[in-house]
Specification:
Distance between the termini: 51 Å
CATH superfamily: Metallo-dependent phosphatases
CATH topology: Purple Acid Phosphatase, chain A, domain 2
Structural class: alpha/beta
Strand content: 15-25%
Strand order of the largest sheet: 1-14-2-3-4-5
Shape: globular
Number of helices: 9
CATH class: Alpha Beta
Length: 287
């Protein structure tokens, strides 16, 4: 099937992108790359990155840390093995987080009922007191409402330019969820309208959100999108989309006191290969 325009609300979907995705749908028919990669143990490994940020205000007595599990860019579809996604969630579950935060791009190519069911099952099986999600460009280029329903069926709240204040004992923490800054309709003024807590954390899909949140008292911004280049060289990424993605392709960065964490993500996009850009998830402790 030839796809020449977005079937969702996402912008920046070009005819060239449509031709590439149409060709991929034919080339990856039946999901043979995912099945083949599933037989390679190294293709299902996920690094767990751990970061601790001393952001919680002091209170009488000891404070219990807030633990976040961050996962992004699952890319459920014909080139990402199920074992890789299962391993990523299992690694995070072992950390016993308080909150699961998900950074978008849950699918590759066109979403269908089977892909949506996989997403709902993976999110639904995860144990956390709260699950928050934003959408990415690949989600917005397909039937995003199907993805949103799958996330909600798994117990996640899909955040679209809004904030949520956490319940006690972390009621001095607010998490702001921004729409995808590259292809979506991001509205930081709306998102931060009720975000008046001392600790502000931002969840979004891409590092293009950095200039949108500067000057708003944000201590930590979490995103993915870049895949660390996915196909990289030993000295670093070869090709990363976007000015901000090239500037901050992966890892932790200090931007005038705001911490930016960019995940390499879990799954595969466009090509069923990763080199020098291993899949990762993150366990983040706010203390």
């Amino acid at each position: 099937m030839l796809k020449l325009q977005s079937t969702g609300r996402g912008r920046r979907y070009t005819r060239l992108r449509g031709l590439v995705e149409s060709a991929q749908s034919l080339a990856y028919a039946g999901g043979w790359p995912a099945r083949l990669l599933g037989q390679v143990p190294a293709a299902s490994r996920v690094r767990v990155l751990r970061h601790t940020f001393p952001l919680l205000p002091a209170r009488n007595g000891r404070r219990r840390p807030l633990r976040l599990a961050f996962i992004s860019d699952l890319h459920i579809g014909p080139i990402t093995p199920d074992k890789l996604i299962d391993h990523a969630f299992a690694q995070l579950q072992e950390a016993e987080p308080d909150i699961l935060v998900m950074g978008g791009d849950y699918v590759s190519l066109e979403v269908n009922d089977a892909v949506a069911e996989k997403l709902a099952a993976a999110v639904g099986a995860f144990r956390a007191s709260m699950k928050l999600a934003v959408l990415g460009n690949h989600d917005l280029w397909t039937r995003h409402e199907l993805i949103e329903r799958a996330l909600e069926a798994g117990g996640a709240r899909v955040m679209l330019n809004e904030s949520v204040r956490l319940p006690p004992p972390h009621d001095d923490v607010v998490i702001v969820g921004l729409d995808d800054p590259w292809t979506g309709q991001v509205d930081p003024d709306k998102a931060f309208a009720g975000a008046d807590a001392p600790v502000k954390l931002v969840l979004t899909h891409a590092p293009e959100a950095v200039p949108l949140v500067e000057g708003r008292g944000v201590q930590l911004l979490m995103c993915g999108h870049t895949h660390g280049g996915q196909v990289a060289a030993p000295w670093g990424p070869i090709l990363v989309e976007g000015h901000f993605g090239r500037r901050w392709p992966f890892g932790l960065h200090d931007i005038d006191g705001m911490q930016l964490f960019v995940s390499r993500g879990v799954g595969y996009s466009d090509l069923p290969v990763r080199s020098f850009a291993p899949s990762d998830v993150a366990v983040i402790d706010i203390v």
